[in-house]
Amino acid sequence: MIYRVLGSTGERVSAIGVGGWHLGLKQVDEPLAIRIVRSAIDRGINFLDNCWDYNEGASELRMGKALRDGYRRQAFVMTKIDGRSRKEAARQLDESLRRLRVDYIDLVQHHEIIRFEDPHRIFDDQGANAALIEARAAGKIRYIGFTGHKDPRIHLYMLEVANENGFKFDTAQMPLNVMDAHYRSFEKLVVPELVKLEIGVLGMKSMANGILLKSKTVTPIECLHYALNLPTSVVITGIDSMEILDQAFGSG
User: Fold this and answer.
1) Which whole number is the average pLDDT over 212-240?
2) What is residue 205's DSSP assignment?
3) Looking at the whole model, is its pTM more than 0.90?
4) Can you give the pLDDT at residue 209?
5) For residues 212 and 90, what is the distance between their CA atoms, to the nearest angstrom?
6) In this structure, how many other beta carbons lie within 10 angstroms of the beta carbon of residue 167?
7) Which candidate, 179, 90, 178, places its Cα nearest to that of 135?
8) Residues 6+ apart with CB under 8 A from 113
9) Interior CA angle at 231 toward 227 and 233, to 5°?
């Protein structure tokens, strides 16, 4: 497994990350989800993605069980919250900590920044970022980032509003795939700015939820290689079987 430095944090993370959404899908039972996470860690993947709202909490609960028996020490755990207010963000974060059965989460990200009003809501005095800064000071989390999949201009605006508030994100997550360059390109507009600011680049949707594979023009490995060859710290990919896990290792 290739390891890369996560922005300016100094953390060494695996170039491939395990996506949390797939761990809670109906066709993935709990023992398989635990096996996927532990096998990934055993083989060198240390970056684990999740979110407070994935599969009504099942994804975090399953990952929490997988992190027992010493696996937590080997993992860089990331989750996301949807709450935009200070109170709701704090509530969701505490729930994620309980589900994941951890004392702290390495990286927490504001999820789905997809509207131009989102940055203002988050950076309000009683907004979600105040809760995350408070949690970081209390040792509940280590790093703070944000995600979005809709429009690169909103990512740039989030960075602008953060700067106006004297805040620098540690990471930003966005779709990065072979088709991205042709429409509202995160690769062209956002990635260069993140590199300049030394903010960790987290890629997702390298296969566009399988849509690119249906075109029969690219293979899964080619999709992963494309995203890995951008200035990404981690490319997060969904893994719902041991065969897909092997595929992920074939790319790294």
Assistant:
1) 84
2) -
3) yes
4) 63
5) 37
6) 15
7) 90
8) 119, 122, 146, 147, 148, 154, 155, 158
9) 85
CB 140 within 8 A of CB 102: no
CA distance 191 to 187: 5
d(CA 47, CA 12): 9
Which token pair is 98? Answer: 């309980």
What is the per-residue pLDDT across 188-201, written as a single tens digit (0 to 9) for each? 999 999 999 999 99
Rg (CA), the chain: 17
Dihedral of CA 19/22/28/29: which sign? positive
Question: In whole angstroms, what separates CA 50 from the centre of its chain?
Answer: 7
Q: Which residue among 3, 54, 104, 226 is the active-site one? A: 54
Q: Which of 90, 104, 13, 18 is nearest to 54 (CA)?
A: 18
- Tell me the CA distances in angstroms from 31 to 12, 24, 219, one per residue in order: 28, 11, 29
- Token match 């240390």: residue? 46
Our answer to whether residue 183 is catalytic in this structure is no
